[in-house]
Every structure is written in structure tokens, then in C-alpha cells.
Amino acid sequence: MGPGSLRDASVGQAEGSSEPVTTMIQPSEDIPDHPVENGEAGSGVVRQTVEFLVVLCLCILLFRTFAAEAYIVPTGSMAPTLLGHHREVACPGCGFRFAVGLDNGGAARPVCPNCGRDDLGEAATVECSGDRLLVQKFLYDIRRPKRWEVAVFQFPGEPSQAYVKRVVGLPGESVQIVDGDVLIDGKVARKSLREQRGTRILVFDGHFTPRDAIRFPRFEFRRGDPRRPLPSGWRGDGARFVRDATEGSVDPIDWLVYRHWDPDRARYAPVYDFTPYNGGDLRGEHRVSDLMIEARLTVEPNVRAVLVRIDAGADRFVVAIPNGDTPDGALEVRRNGLRLEGVRPAARAAWGESRRAVPVLFEASVMDRRLTVALDGEPLFDPIDYDPEPGPGHDDGPIALGVRGGSMTVEDLRIYRDIFYTATLANTPRRPFAVDSPVRLGPDEYFVLGDNSPVSNDSRFWSHSPVVPGELFLGKPFLVHLPGQLVPLQVFGRAVYWVPDPREIRYIR
Questions:
Q1: Do 71 and 10 meet the contact criterion of CB atoms below 8 Å apart?
Q2: Distance between CA 291 and CA 51 in Å, rounded?
Q3: Tens digit of each residue's pLDDT (9 = 90 or more) over 204-238
Q4: If you average pLDDT over every residue of the chain, what do you get?
Q5: How confident is the model at residue 427 (pLDDT cuts 50, 70, 90)?
Q6: How far apart are alpha carbons 192 and 408 in whole angstroms?
Q7: Of 26, 115, 453, 504, which one has the fewest beta carbons inside 10 Å?
Q8: How distant is the alpha carbon of residue 177 from its chain centre?
Q9: How far apart, in Å, are the Cα atoms of 129 and each of 82, 91, 120?
């Protein structure tokens, strides 16, 4: 998509919706108690299969009529959560697959978000239709929409048109967007770990190693003083990293440091709000300090402690997690070198429960001015909320994993960023709501935003009013069902261009 282009966030109702159906099913005949011939057995199997398919079709019709409604997403204002008409690109540089929008009728210039390769004109692509949603009807007749929930509603400016967005402002609240964050009544609207998983945007996936990783490594191994470094125990092993125990009485922290290669600038740089769905012509202009690391760690009993470091603007957080009964003592959290007092573990380190090393899902994030660390989905301590320190950000790697002593394996490593809510719409000079000053919502009024913030025509940019009345909500989408690829086929002499792609079936967070 080129500069100045717009994309709305509408969803179209899928074809084939049915009126309520009343039907009667006749009971099947009793199974005979005498032997049957092969012909009779085959006839019985066919009959049971036909009956099963008829009942299944009736159940689907009843479900769609009374419980759920099907919609199609034509545009990408909710990408990457929901995709509009797009093409899937397979990067030849790392093998990563990503979506590039076709919303404007033309193909945006693809740039791989994982390795940064932009000469993808000859890359393998597959054209795909917009996501097909199942929307839970009548839910909002029972309860009202919640913050960070994806919802379908009638567009207030044109009630015949359905839109899909994420709810951020609730009735009676004051909403403002400041430095990419949503402020509610003057305070940052913070997300739980579960909500962070629903809004996070993938920045790097360790399953796909860039071919230029030897020239421009995405990870560095650092042990000891940078001025007098010691040999590191880290080594790459395919898509994983292995740390071998090192010798010597001195055992400083051995760091595995992520270095971000900016796909938009083709160099090492901080993380920006580049969105691959929009193509390389719409650059990421805002530095994003809200980051998350996710990995599966196997910690051997000889490890004394596991550490994680996350930079957020001028703030640097370091969390040290001891491995069972080791000399390293209790859990420790430091901010800018100073130990935070009163941090009590909410769950014991999973790798300290036994002396048998087992893989543990590790998640750590600094999002919405909140530090969160979790093991196997359980918070390690109560989230720590903070106000940011002024000053420039760090430039020596935004995220790092460290280990003191012993051996450890890191697999399934991924880096994410949070949504950065912008104050402009695809470089279009339109004065936004809730940016220069807060918007006060009345009773049963809501403020909604799209996940693909640079191109989302949402509450910020509606000309008439920024609010969605509660009566216009249609339901909550919960499943992307039957996503499809547009592949030309010849079936009975007729061209068919849509075939289901079961790989992309997913629940909506």
C-alpha cells in the first residue's frame, strides 16, 4: 500500500446464511438380529453415512441461525489478528511466511519482517481471501463488551455496514492516546498476560534462521566485562541455542543477547512499528519499547540462576530466577541497577521443583509500563507497574537471556512487540479524536481501535463521532473458520478460485 491510502475495517456477511429451520428426524430401524449379506452391510454403511451428513448439516444450520453468524473480513485494519484479502509470501531468505495486503486492489511491496529481505518480487506467493469469522450472537445481550475484546458492530456512520475492531474505551471513561499507549482516565490501560498474548505482534521467530545470520547475527554471546570478555558457553544448534557449562572459579553471567535487524531500514536498530501486512512503502516511524520474549527453556540442575533482561526506553529491568536451593538465594528484580524491594514470588520456579530438567515455557514482557514474567503460564510474581524514566533508550540489544553456571537449552524463541497506536492515518492529514485531548464517553458508549493502527479507520478518525453506541454491537467473533486460498481450478468445467486452508483456522483472542 502506498502513502496516502486508506483502509476501512468493514466485515461483510458471508453468503449462505439460513432462515430458522424446523425438522423432524425419523428414528432408524432396529438392527436385525440375524446375519446380513455383504450387500446389506454395505447398504447399511452408506445409509449411516448419509444420515450422519444430513444431521451434521442440520446442526450447522441451526448453529448458524441461533448461535453464530458468519462474516468475511475484506480489509486488513485488524492485521495481523484478522487478515483481509491478501497474499501469503514465502521468504526465500529465511523460510518465514507472512501476509501482505491486497486491500487497495494492488499488491504492496513485500518485506520479510523476520530477516528483512525486500527483493521478494520472485518469491513464492499464494493469493488468499479475507478471514471468515464466526461471530457469537446475542452475547452482548447478556453482558456488555469488555476492554481489549474484539467485537463486530454496525458502523455508526452507516448502520448497514458491519465493522470489526478491538474495544478499548468503556462507558463513562475518558480515553486518550499518548506515545502509543491507551490512557483511561489519565492512567495507562494495562493488559494481563492473556490480553498481551492477544495483541502482541511477532518481530522475530527463531524457527526461521536468516541466511545472512553469519554476516549479521541476530544473537550475540556475551560473558564477563565487555572490555575484557570471557569465552561464552553459548552456541547455536539449528533453531535452538545450547549453553554448555564453562570451566573456572569465576562464573559471571553468560548472556544470549537479541539484536534486532530492522526490516524497514536494513540495519541493526531499535524495534519500530513496522507492519509487514502494509508493505515496505509504509514505514514504521515510531520506536516501540513494549516488548515480549517467549521461549521454551530446559534448565539443568547445575544451573545456579536464569536471568532475563528487557529494555523499555530508558529503563532496564533484570530478573534473576534461582534454580532451587542454590547459593544465588531468592528471586531478584532490578530496575536500572537498583534492587526492587517487596517482590514476592507468586509461583516457584518450575525448574526448581525437581532435579530433573524438563522444558518450561518462559514468558517475560514489559508492556503498558508493566513488567510480567511467567513460567508455564503462571506469573512468577505479581506484575510490577511503573512510571517510565526520562532519557534515551538503550542500543545494545533490547532483550537478553542469561545463565549463571551450568547448562541450559533455549528452543521456540520468539520476540514480540505491542501495538503502537498512531496519531495519523496512513499519512493522511485528518485530525484524530483522543490524541490532542481526551474523549469522554457517555453511558453505553464505547471507543474502538484497529490492531493495524497506521491504516485503521476507527474511532480516532470517524468524522461524525468517535463513539459506538452499545445498541450497535452485533457480537463477538471467536473463530476464523475455513480461511481460503484463491487457486484457479477446473471443476466440472467451471472455474473455482477458493479452496479452504485448514492451516489458518484459529481462535480469536
A1: no
A2: 52
A3: 999 999 999 999 999 999 998 878 888 999 999 99
A4: 85
A5: low
A6: 28
A7: 26
A8: 21
A9: 11, 20, 21
Global pTM reads: 0.85
Looking at this protein, which amino acid is placed at residue 507? Y
CB–CB of 449/443 below 8 Å?
no
Cell numbers given for 168:
478499548
Whole-angstrom distance, CA of residue 221 vs CA of residue 252: 13
pLDDT in tens, 282-315: 889 999 999 999 999 999 998 999 999 999 999 9
Least confident residue range of 39-43, 112-116, 122-126: 39-43
Cell numbers for 186, please give them: 489519565
Q: Beta-strand (E) ranges in 277-328?
A: 291-299, 305-312, 315-322
Distances 474 to 60, 61, 107, 211, 335 between C-alpha atoms, Å? 20, 19, 32, 47, 45
User: Per-residue confidence at 31, pLDDT binned at 50, 70, 90?
Assistant: very low
pLDDT of residue 59: 57
β-pair partners for 237:
240
Other Cβ atoms closer than 10 A to 438: 19
**Considering only CA atoms, which of 400, 302, 415, 408 is closest in space to residue 359?**
408
State which H helix or E strand residue 199 sits in.
helix 193-199
Beta-sheet pairing, 468-469 with 445-449? antiparallel
Which domains, ranges and CATH numbers included, belong to the chain?
Answer: 219-258+289-417 (2.60.120.560)
Query: Hey, which residues does 163 pair with through a beta bridge?
Result: 10, 153
Cβ–Cβ under 8 Å, residues 211 and 392: no
C-alpha cell, 439:
474523549
Higher pLDDT, 18 or 174: 174
Please give the Cα distance from 463 to 432 (Å, whole number). 9
- The DSSP result for 42-68, as a single string, is HHHHHHHHHHHHHHHHHHHHHHHHHTE
